[in-house]
Amino acid sequence: MTIKKVGILTGGGDCPGLNSVLYGIMLKAFDAGVECVGIEKGWKGFIENLTIPLNIAEHDDLHTIGGTFLYTSRTNPFKSIQKAKTDEEKESLKEKISKEMAGKFAELGIDALIAIGGDDTLGVADALYKYSNAKVVGCPKTIDNDLAGTHYTFGFWSAVQLASNAMDNLTTTARSHQRVFIVEVMGRDAGFLTMYSGISSGADIILIPETPFDFERDVVEVLKKRANSGHKYHMIACSEGAYPDQESLKRDFKTITQETIDKLPKDVFGNPVLPALNISNILVKELNLRDDLKEVFAKNGVDFECRSVVLGHTMRAGTPNSFDRILGLRFGLAAMKLVLDGEFGKMVSLQGTDITTFPLKEGVKKKYIKPDSDKLELRDLMVKIRYKSREN
Ligand code: F6P
């Protein structure tokens, strides 16, 4: 079947580079004589027929602009399956909803769909392909970089730069007041953003979800050693999803318990809303309860003061950096080529420096920092050598 009209949607959190992907798709589509239709607000617009025509002549330099002009939402068309009791029930409900959704292609007048999103949005695209053989292609987006099917998602490096700049800048306040700053970085349950921005800005302690921390050993003791070796201020980069290991949680924490973590609210896709925990603020409270730490600081001529800063949505804000503009354009071009070649059920992917493709069902799986990552080694060396190199 010749593709005449392609629908495009952006779902999940906004992300620098979304408009770059849109422009990449539109360039190739125009050249191939294919009409593009924008579906607004992600899967919500797909279900509710919210469409706008896309005329490339009106969008010169779209790839340089942040956010998504198609709007986005966290809409999970499969939300109702969360109530199903058995796996069989879940499967059959998923199949039913997918088939209903496949009917939307005709209603929307599109021959194929390009879904741009993270694991949640692309998970829906994958189910659509799996259960109804829909003509769908995926494009991996997220500042979290936690998708298995690509070395980097677009948006990640822009967010790393923003977080790194924020921590660089906060250093002047930390230094002026001789303070401890705990900077909370987005990323859900993956530590890429915190790790990369923390290393890049030279954070003194970096806490990520992949390596649950021991509060006594990894925070209190390190701060004491740093104070005793003459450090007067301290930057802690802390993932919003970082949490203490079980033993430390029971032994060291006075203000939260396991129940606090278990009872976090869930979003429409069933993910715990990690920012609701506000781990950086919890750490400030716990550190403030530590008279032993305050004594060590005082002995070294510093009044212990600790503050938390939540970077939050500032990390997704603003224009994409050059890397994400180029990656977005390349992803858009490749996604449109998949559509033209009739290669559905796939997502575009960056492997090394090459743009390739990946089956959606594999690519949407979650990715985490691996235990043998050189980034972990770098982090641990940076933390340790800073006080060790000053010890007598
Ligand atoms: O997945 C991207 C992300 O920015 C996460 O890092 C963060 O936890 C979440 O989205 C925040 O979502 P919202 O914009 O819905 O608050």
List the main descriptive attributes of the protein structure presented here:
392 residues; alpha/beta; Rossmann fold; 2 domains; seven-stranded mixed sheet; four-stranded parallel sheet; 15 helices; binds 6-O-phosphono-beta-D-fructofuranose
How would you describe the overall organization of this protein?
The chain folds into two domains: 5-154 and 320-363, 3-Layer(aba) Sandwich (Rossmann fold), CATH 3.40.50.450; 157-316, 3-Layer(aba) Sandwich (Rossmann fold), CATH 3.40.50.460. It is 44% helix and 15% strand. The protein has 15 helices and eleven strands. The protein has helices spanning 18-32, 43-48, 87-102, 104-108, 119-132, 156-177, 192-201, 215-228, 246-252, 258-262, 279-288, 291-299, 322-340, 360-363, 374-388; strands spanning 5-10, 35-39, 51-54, 112-117, 136-140, 180-185, 205-207, 234-239, 306-310, 346-351, 354-359. Strands 3-2-1-4-5-10-11 form a seven-stranded mixed β-sheet, with helices on both faces. It has a four-stranded parallel β-sheet with strand order 7-8-6-9, sandwiched between helices. Strand 1, helix 1 and strand 2 (35-39) form a beta-alpha-beta unit. The protein is elongated and about 75 Å long. Bound molecules: 6-O-phosphono-beta-D-fructofuranose. 6-O-phosphono-beta-D-fructofuranose (F6P) is lined by residues 13, 74, 118, 142-144, 186-188, 240, 274-275, 316.
